[in-house]
Amino acid sequence: MRLLLVLLLMSPAALAAQPLKVAVSIIPLKTLVEAVGGDRVEVVSMTRPGDNPAVYNPSPRQIHAASSADLLFFVGVPLERLWLERIRAARPTLRLVDVRRGIELRRLEEHHGHDGRSDLDPHVWTSPPLARRMAAAIRDALTEADPAHRNHFEQGFQRLAARIDGVDRQIRKLLAPVKQRRFLVFHPAWGYFADTYGLTQAAVETGGKAPGARALAKLIEQAKAENIRVIFVQPQFSTRLAQRIAQAIGARVATLDPLGPDFLDQALKAAEIIAGRQR
Predict the structure, then answer these.
(1) Which stretches in the chain have pLDDT values below 70?
(2) Strand partners, 152
(3) Domain formed by 179-274, architecture
């Protein structure tokens, strides 16, 4: 009764002062939302650092937290479809925001679903310019949900955009003189990064599976012929096969985490390694 009385006595301005409750599917989205929203958002992520969203199953408590949010941002990682169904069932009126709005999506190389159609690559944020567009979509959604703080969200976006633009310039400068435009990855997470900077990503894993003996031999032969010197791996996956391939072709294995909170720094690190200037 006392709580109800307090709520009734609160002014509209006081109620508006409450931060937006926001749910996101992965950590990179949490980074973007917090950068744009600042102290006007409280963000809960369905995954934690180190989790693989392709196989992670959120707990009932996480589903409840997400369904209690004002907004939920998603980006197309595989199991989002299952999560979103459960969250939608818990709260049909929750506003869902696809941050890929207006972005041309690419296909995962050699990756086909059970219906024979290629799956869309969800790793849009690995391209800094596309991460900037995602941030703009986040700004617009936050502004629509809380128009009284439009200027706050715009300022947050502008600060983030300036940082992204700076990283983008650094990457372009690093890669400008690079002649070897092809790099090897275990999991095909860097396709948008490659497309943005005129590179080619070659993946060890295809369709979520390691290659068979014949395909592996062909991959090793091609990597040797092209003098590929690095294989990128992720902490969410075993590196055993990548180590074998690296030994066979005389390359090094480098760990990048596109699913971590510092994904912009990881993109810069990728460019430095490709350019032979790792920090």
Answers:
(1) 1-16, 53-54, 109-118, 278-279
(2) none
(3) 3-Layer(aba) Sandwich (3.40)
pTM beyond cutoff 0.85: yes
Tokens at 125, concatenated? 């944020």
Q: Which amino acid is at 160?
A: L
Q: Which amino acid is at 264?
A: L
**Residues 56-78: tens digit of each pLDDT:** 778 888 888 889 999 999 999 88
In which residue ranges of the chain is CATH 3.40.50.1980 found?
Answer: 16-169, 179-274
Q: Could you say which of 3.40.50.1260, 1.10.10.10, 3.40.50.1980, 3.40.1190.20 is the CATH number of the domain covering 16-169?
A: 3.40.50.1980
Query: Which pLDDT value is given to residue 99?
Result: 98
Cβ contacts of 48 within 8 Å, gap of 6 or more: 27
Q: What is the pLDDT of residue 211?
A: 82
C-beta contacts of 144-153 below 8 A and 24+ residues apart: 145/20, 145/70, 145/71, 145/95, 146/16, 146/20, 146/40, 148/16, 149/40, 152/38, 152/40, 153/36, 153/37, 153/40
